[in-house]
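Minutes, project check-in
Item: structure for the 311-residue chain
Input as provided by the requester:
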Amino acid sequence: MDGARNGLRATMMVALMLTSVFVAFAVPGHMVAEKADAALNPVPVLTLSLAPTQLEARVTNSQNGPVMFGGNATVEKFSGSLERVTVTLSASCIWPAIVSPSTMVFTNMVPQPFYVTVVVPPKTSALEIGQLIVSGTAKAPGMPTASATANAVVTVGQYFKLSIGADTPLREVKPGDITYNTVNIYNEGNGLDSFELEVINSKDLLKKEFNVIIERTSIDIQQEEYAQIKITVQTPQGFRLWARDLVLVTLKVNSVEARNNNLLYSQQYSLSIYMRGFHQPGFDPFLAVLAFAGLAVMVKGRKDLAVHRRL
């Protein structure tokens, strides 16, 4: 009886040992199988890049400024079970952005190129900066979706444009008069600009005895704003029995910012001064009337005295 019990115990012990060995070896084997399956079915890894990472758009007041970035898309972790990966691209910016091609199919890890065009509208301020973001997703049958992004910057170059006008472009004056003229300078560019001012024919005017004084020789004007400049013109002070003369006061405005960018930009504007009339230095019409009246009285007095003597 005791022998039978001892035999049963031995049998149970052997069975327990065999079960432990089976469990110990079965679990690691299952994990190894899962790892092997994962190696045969890897999750694709998408990589995007842009070059260059910054471009400057050249716009004008009437034309847009397109810029184009080049890019590469790469899908990694290909294996025999991963035969086809579809990549979809999109682009976003504060201005219209188009990516081409927007869809690519990968069958290996060879990079594929794409291009992104950003169109900056006319009159865009040189102070604005656009952040370009290219987003991509990679999809394969039975695999999680992989995603990636690439970034770049779009800046706006400054363009230069101005216009000049006067409140009264033609002035009619008499010899010896002083005229005050207001000239408006408009900055129609897309950034702050500094302007240099000069009357380019001042020497010729001085030869004709016209004195010209400009209020200032430089001024800063913000984009889409204007400033007023005073130009004083004094006509000849010498004797003129009768004068009729038309002169032009030509103002030249140079853009300093354009010169700093190795460009030349300037505009000219002419004020017309029409001098007509009589002038005698120190001549006062009221005193002249009194003088003529006194002369008439003297003449009349002499005539009366002559008549009295005859009588």
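Outcome recorded: Confidence is low (pLDDT under 50) at residues 14-38, 284-291.
No further action items on this chain.
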